[in-house]
Amino acid sequence: MSKKRIFSGAQPTGRLHLGNYLGALKNWVELQDEYDSIFCIVNLHALTLPQDPKTLRKSTLDLARVYLAAGIDPSKAVIFLQSDVPAHAELTWVLLCTARMGELERMTQFKDKAKGNTERAGVGLFSYPVLMASDILLYQTNLVPVGHDQKQHLELTRDLAERFNRDFGETFTIPEVFIPKAGARIRSLQDPAKKMSKSDENEAGAIFLDDGADAIAKKIKRAVTDSGTEISFDESRPAIHNLLTIYQLVTGKSEQECVDNFAGKGYGQFKAELADAVIEYLRPFQEQIASFDDASVAKILQDGAEKARSIASETLADAYAKLGIVT
What we know:
Elements (H helix, E strand, L loop, with lengths): L4 E6 L7 H14 L4 E6 L11 H18 L6 E5 L5 H10 L4 H5 L2 H7 L8 H15 L5 E3 L5 H18 L7 E3 L34 H9 L16 H14 L3 H7 L5 H23 L4 H30 L4
Parallel strand pairs: 1-2, 2-3, 4-5
Helix pairs in contact: 2-11, 3-6, 3-12, 6-7, 8-11, 9-11
C-alpha cells in the first residue's frame, strides 16, 4: 500500500447526533484524502442487543445515507456492510480461539451494557470486542479512529494480533489508535460530565442529525451552563467549554476568535448565536441526505462489499494457512 490504511465503522442503531458527526464522520471525510480508507456499517454488532428487523433494515440504509451526505466519497473510500463480507465472522472464530476469558471479562463496556446482570447477558455482548478485532485486522489496518471509550477494545485487538503473530507467524498488521485532537468528546447538553450519546434516555442532551431548526434551538436554549458569566474555553467550567467547542467546530473559527466574538455578551445571546450556527452547519448535510435513494445506496454498498471481500479474503486465507486449515 502506498498510503496507510484506516478502518472505522458505526452501528446502525439509534439516531446519530452532532457529537458523532463532529467527532467521527467529519474526521473520516478529511482522512479519506490522506489515507486508504475503509468505512464499514457494522450491522452484525447491532445483534448484540435485541433489534426489530424492519427497523434495523431501514436504519442500516439510513446510516449509509449519512456516510454519503457527510462527504465520504465511494471513489476515495470503501463503504460496505459488515454482513456482506463473511470473512468478518470467520476470522472472529479464529480470534475467539486465541482470546482469553479474562481479557473479555475486563471489558468495561460489557459490564456497562450488561447493567450488572452478567449471568443473563448474551454471549454476543460478551464476545463482540473480538468481532471488532476481526473487523480491524482483516484489512491490515494501520490506524483506527476511535473515541476514548473504545481504546480498551483496540488494545485487545493489538494483543490478539501480537499473540497470533507470535504463535503462528507474521499475519496481521498491529493497528495504532488515532484520536482526533478536536471534537472527539462532545459532551451532553444536559450533563457535561457525560459524552453526547444516542442511547441517552434524556434526548435533550443530544442534537440529532435529523433534528429540525426548532428542535435544535430549543435544546441549545435549555442546555445547562456553569456559574459565572465569562464565555471562555475553561475546562473547570465544562458546560460552557462544551458549548463553545461546538461553536468553534461548526464555524471553523479559532479559539481566540470565538472568545472575542462573545466578549461582553450574556448566555442568552451566546446560545442564540450557537443555535443559528448549528442549524446552518447541518442544513446542507440534511438536504444532501434526501438526495440518496435506496437503489443508489444499495449499489454503492454492493460495490464496496466487492472491494472489501477482495482484501479480507487474502488476510483470512493467510490466517487459515498459518493455522493449517485446508481451504
